[in-house]
Amino acid sequence: MKNKLEALETYRAFAALMIAALHFELDTPIVDHALARGTFVHFFFTLSGFVIYYNYHDQFLNFFELKKFIKKRFLRLFPLHLFFLIIFLSIEILRYFAELNFGISSATEPFEKNNFYAFVSNLLLLQTFLDQNTFNGPSWSISAEFYTYILFGLMVFYRIKVIFFLIILIVILIFRQFYGPEFGPQTTYFSFIDCIYCFLIGSIFCELYFKIKKFDFYKNFTNTLVILSILLVLFSIFDFEGKERYLRPFFFGILILFSSNLDKKTLLGKIICNNFFVFLGKISYSIYLSHVFIFWSVTQILQIIFNVGTYVDPNTGIKKLDIDIFYSSILAIILYILTILFSILTYKLIEKKFYR
């Protein structure tokens, strides 16, 4: 395994926190802002393509190494996913008995969406192909990534060159332009296709990184290029609509490309590669999978024990806690703290244990 690119760990942490903000349904600018978007899932896909290509593009000399790669990817993703799948199954069972014995009902019937078929699909990492997100909603992307890893492993095993990556990318782009919903967090096979699309973009930018990382221009203007790339990414997130969204992963790739050369010798490098941010990047997978559970748990405690009321947002149709902006802000901070603390535990007790 090659050395970690610390700036990318920080970006991974930021993306996980923004996805958490998207799911923390509170009326506060701490989480209700323009950057709380599902597009950061595609940033994850692009980043994965870059990092996996960075570490494995020159490996898989035999079938044993290919099996080892797939097993390692499986152990990286599945144990934590299974842990939360069991938790959300337990929640569904509790909802069923609460309604049966105490008449406590919720917006949806127990096992209406999270049924046996959905459970088996999640258990087999096939949930990305379902027509709705079930159990731990964000885990759909884990399914898409796992099968993209397998596809990547086969492509490298059969010595498929980057030019073929580009051809596949163009075919996907043409297909997505004319068929299916617009580019964005999706369900069914479109979510898998979009994952492959972003992953290949990340892989191509990693190959470009190998080509240009020794150039003096790349070395001497890293900080400037990173700042410009961040501005481009923000522009693509805020301004791109419709078919323009297909360009976002390219801007993600540009940012990753130039940030890969950052180190702590410069002010920008010290900020982005800060040890705390890098650590959050290490536990970002746990943050990504745990934040919905943390939010659900806290809101249930507030409603059942502290009798906090709820209302339906007329703009989104989503049920929210009926608390003012001050208490929403305090709660958002508490949710982030609890998510990080819980993620440290799951990282140490599950992720590291099974991955090793």
Overview of the structural elements:
A hairpin with a 6-residue loop joins strand 1 and strand 2 (319-321). With 356 residues, this protein is mainly α. The chain has helices spanning 6-23, 39-56, 63-102, 116-123, 140-157, 162-178, 188-212, 216-220, 222-239, 248-259, 267-272, 275-282, 284-304, 325-355; strands at residues 310-312, 319-321. It is globular and about 65 Å long. It has 14 helices and 2 strands. It starts with 5 loop residues before the first helix and ends with a helix.
Q: Number of folding domains? A: 1
Main sheet record: 2 strands, antiparallel
Rg over CA atoms: 21 Å
Task: Provide the residue-averaged pLDDT.
Answer: 92
Distance between the termini: 13 Å
Please report the number of helical segments: 14
Helix content: 55-70%
Taken from the alpha-carbon principal axes, the silhouette is: globular
Number of strands: 2
Poorly predicted sequence stretches spanning 5 or more consecutive residues: none
Order of helices and strands: HHHHHHHHHHHHHEEH
Task: List the strand order in the largest sheet.
Answer: 1-2
Beta percentage is under 5%
Query: Which structural class is indicated by helix and strand composition?
Result: mainly alpha
